[in-house]
Design goal:
This protein is an alpha+beta fold. The protein has helices at about 25-30, 45-50, 55-70, 90-95, 105-120, 210-215, 215-235, 250-265, 295-310, 325-355, 380-390, 400-405, 410-415, 470-475, 480-490, 495-520, 530-545, 555-580; strands spanning about 70-75, 80-85, 120-125, 135-140, 145-150, 155, 160-165, 170-175, 180, 185, 190, 195-200, 240-245, 280-285, 365-370. The strands form 6 sheets. It has a 3-stranded antiparallel sheet with strand order 2-1-15. A 3-stranded antiparallel sheet has the order 4-3-12. Helix 3 crosses helix 5 (about 105-120).
Length: about 575
Amino acid sequence: MGYLTKLASEFRSSLENPQTPLSYPAEWLLDIFNGGRTDSGIRVSELTALQVTTVFTCVDIISSAIAAAPLNVYETLGNDSIRLAEDENLHFVLHDEPNEEMTSHTFRKTLQCHALLWGNLYAEIQRDYAGRPVALWPRTPNNTEPRRATAQFSFRDALGELHTIPQGYLFYATRDGQTAVDGQIKERYIESADMLHIPGLSLDGRLGRNVIELSRQAIGLALATEKFGGKFFANGLRPTGVVTLPNKMTALAVENFKRSMSEAYGGENMLRPMVIEEGMTWTEQRIAANEGQWTETREFQDAKIASLFRVPLRMVGVNKGGSNKGTAEQEGIEFVNFTLRPWIAPWEQELKRKLMPKKGRNSGRFYPGFDLEDLTLPDADSRAKFYTLLKQWGIANTDDIRKKLRWNPVGGKAGKTYWMPVNMQDASDPMGASSGGGATGGEPGGPPKLPPAPGAKEPTTEPPIPKAGGPEKKFWHLHPMFADAFQRYMRGEGTEARLTRAFLPVLLCIASAEADDARAIGCDPFDETTPEVALGCREYLKKMFNRATSWQNDEGAPLHEVGNAAEALRIVVRSKSQAEVTT
């Protein structure tokens, strides 16, 4: 196995035996020394805190979310783009299998539980002989701690390599997996560069504070209310009344009476009708659990503990405001932004700092990153609108979207083509003054210059500037549309049907403008939707088709055709008024 041999074997016969615990000290030792005792009389430790449902839920939901988010390795490329580096060995370590005993999900969930309960998470880095990380092993916070060397010293690791820690440098000591020698567990030392360490709330930037210790009073009160509720419902014969005996009884008789009453009406026999002997009397005493605001105390402690972990109340089962879809979605976004990201950021930074190369040709090329997209997905209708906008504005193609949906690609041109609206303009250069509105070239303030058609020579002169007041000048705003139609016709098969599809919408726009001008001077023209105008446009398109063979070598053809079309369609739309005058 070579360098794949585990750094420190765990010599235990059982992982479940509480006398030889995997990670934690024996709880009864804390009881003996009264450790973690709170004002409520309940001892609180990292393990007993998990007996509080809210603590367990908060720890589980945060650690599960961080474990479920894919942890990837990305590579930055020279063209300012990035790629998912699935072929890198470190990606396999972080994304799939950190070590030969755990999946990435189990590894990250375990470490995040450590951070939430102890305030620190530790993971030892196993490297090969070339210094490359090949495995990560979790180390429990109660058996691991950072130290600073007061004097220079040396030690050998599990592979026999000699390490020297200079004075004042940070290193780590751990007892994880070590066997006891003469009743003592020998420590093992680890260089700082070989230990992942993410502290929680820290006052010195080196060691995180124990969350359970700092909040033990709130958790102790929650445990006390749980214990009270259990005892309240477990004892069927509650002190809700007093039995008065007629005569003085011996101590033995009193004990026999109490035992018989407990057996007859306690436990499973609670609420049975009571039968007492002659001379005895029963006096009722009502004691209700809510007199001590037991329910309110439990709800208050749930809210306090949820706020301690920054988890929305809805996620821990407290839903006083009812069900609201919008509120639930917003709380989900807040959970990612304010609960998960404060942990994810130090995860990514520590992984990059300790695992990614800082020197050599790969320095700065790779970085780790959590993919939180699945945790922030909206409802189906919002996703559909989002993907529609991505494709409509040319941000993504069909295969890009299908990849996000985990569908097979369409392939070919249909899947790889990027769409974009044809009526877009450069905001800094409206109407294509210099960029040509999607074409290239052009004089400032003039119509766009078209790219040469296939087989045509690059024009050496600019198209003529239209005369002031002429029809070409009047319809300059239609030049981008006319130029686009001209391009589409010249690059395809030169058929009359193709020319009609390309130019008919532009001609109808010109006819509409001419009709408006006619109305402005008191005429009653044909509307652009009438059969007469449609017939006039088609007649003009036939003439355009006959002239199309001469367009290839004439860079000014679009400019001239706009003027010709304006003149022809002015006659068509005003022919109605002329007919009325003749009549």
